[in-house]
Design a protein that fits this description.
The protein has five helices and two strands, in the order E-H-H-E-H-H-H. By secondary structure, it is mainly α.
Length: about 130
């Protein structure tokens, strides 16, 4: 966040239900001794998408699992239902809603797969 240009927006998808991403970022930036005015201006370039938690951390729905399966078939990229599945779902919906061809997007994979476990054997086979 601190290294983004003024024209760049950061999209955040929290997997925790009710998590206040903006206040968490504000606190972390303040701990790094950034100026409060700079923090406020910088956070204006953050867009939080809190509606993609699918019930909260470690929870998921059939909608998410179906999306992950289609995404794997189409792209050959495995996603987990804890982090990357939710984030990629949000990204794909964002692209469908905005359809802004002038916008460049970068998806940063910051975790998942290793820690994400799909509960049933049937579902494990679907994604492995």
């Amino acid at each position: 966040l601190s290294s983004l240009s003024e024209k760049t927006r950061l999209h955040v998808v929290p997997v925790l239900k009710g998590f206040d991403s903006i206040n968490e970022m504000r606190s972390l930036l303040a701990q790094c001794a950034f100026d409060e005015e700079w923090i406020t201006e910088t956070l204006e370039n953050v867009q939080v998408h809190p509606e993609y938690h699918f019930g909260g951390y470690g929870k998921y729905t059939n909608v998410l699992l179906d999306f992950m399966e289609r995404f794997f078939v189409d792209c050959q990229v495995p996603l987990d239902p804890i982090y990357t599945g939710k984030t990629m779902y949000a990204l794909m919906e964002y692209c469908q809603k905005t359809a802004n061809i002038e916008e460049n997007l970068l998806f940063i994979h910051t975790g998942g797969i290793e820690g994400g476990k799909v509960i049933s054997q049937k579902e494990q086979k679907r994604f492995c």
